Amino acid sequence: EWVAKCLGQMTDSNKEEAQAELRQVIADSFVNKALWTTDWAGVQLKSLVPKPLNENPFTNLKRKFNEASISGTTSITHKKTKKTSVAKSAGHNALDPNDSAALNRRATRFQREHAIERQKGLNGNNGHVSSIHANPSNSHLFHNSRSQSPSLATDDPEADPNVPNWDRFTIVGTSRELFKDYLRLTSEPNPEQIRPLNILKDTLDQLKTRWREKANYNWICSQFKSLRQDLTVQRIKNEFTVGVYEIHARMALEVGDMVEYNQCQAMLRNLYDLGITGKHEEFTAYRILLLLHGRNRSDLNLYVGQLTAQQKSMPAVKHALAVQRALSLGNYHAFFDLYLNAPNMGAYIMDHFIDRERMRALIVMTKSYLTLQLVFIQSELAFETPAEARTFLSTHDVAKFFKNANSPDEDVVLECRAAHAVLTQAFEEKYRKVQIRGAV
């Protein structure tokens, strides 16, 4: 939440400096073992502190003096007289320090505003603040419920174990509709349009069936986002919630929708941190692979450094760490072997950077060999067929260096010396920068 707040305060002018400071603050906190003890809400990045305007402090004073000189002292006297008369006419509205009733009214008003602001901070944009604004006289209920007043404890509905931060303002849906298209909320949620937990479970079962029947992904995605929205507005956080995000994340990986995948991955990290059971090992491995895709070494080292020895020994995580090691050592043979044997859906993430690593491997290979057989390139770089390898080389403009290009695949040979310079230039132009859609 603190990082999101900092990102929201960044502008084009301070973004680079602020991001560097943000990474440094987190890294220092990790080194000092203070990640979980720091009061992040009170941490302020120096680069995000508003800078004073570079204006001469006497400029405004000079401008006002000149204006007064032009208009004459009569206008100034008139303004003073007008101000005095207004103050006298409104004298009965002024706050008299000896008027205890007025002071009490003012204290009550500020207490109500404080409750509203605090509610905003605790509940975000879940629509609960609107209910306080609609009936300000009930604002004391917020403080009483938080302080567990005996007079109100008996009036509270029974707390839902699926809602970790249950209170009397928690929304409970009443809709019986199984399917509902996703629409971004622009007003306070209406319980009549929100499905309760038991209906959402039926919805998930139906969506899994539709997906197996090859339903359109765009429709499935809209339904899942709507399902996630209903869980969010009701603040339901349990194993079912984790399952919803895990299933949607896998579907997104299958079709290459990295925007939705990254949204699911971000929420899953929060849910796992709450101690809710799920496929933590599987999605830890996915996160490592995604950081390898983005070549974000600092975040990767920070994340891996937080893993316990037990987590690192889990098969999927162990595989992802082996991929990291192969890349850092430039061991392309080990890398492509790991790609062919990736557990779960790890290969779907590796697909996003497999071509980049093929190019890196080809640059090394063409510098090390005089010629390379097409079938060897296909086998070494994990292409399914020689034809797929030939297409890849043609895409990068090195197929023109084939010998026996019209012969059977096993007789086709690549001239390495001529191809090396072209491959190096193609890598610089196409793979030097990494763009990740929906990165979080």
TrEMBL record:
Membrane-spanning segments: none
InterPro entries listed in its UniProt record: PCI_dom, SAC3/GANP/THP3, SAC3/GANP/THP3_conserved
The protein's name: PCI domain-containing protein
Organism: Antrodiella citrinella
Record PANTHER family: 80 KDA MCM3-ASSOCIATED PROTEIN (PTHR12436), LEUKOCYTE RECEPTOR CLUSTER MEMBER 8 (PTHR12436:SF4)
Polar residues biased stretches: 122-152
Domain PCI: residue ranges: 233-420
Coiled-coil zones: none
Domain of life: Eukaryota
GO cellular component, one term: nucleus
Region Disordered, residue ranges: 74-103, 117-166
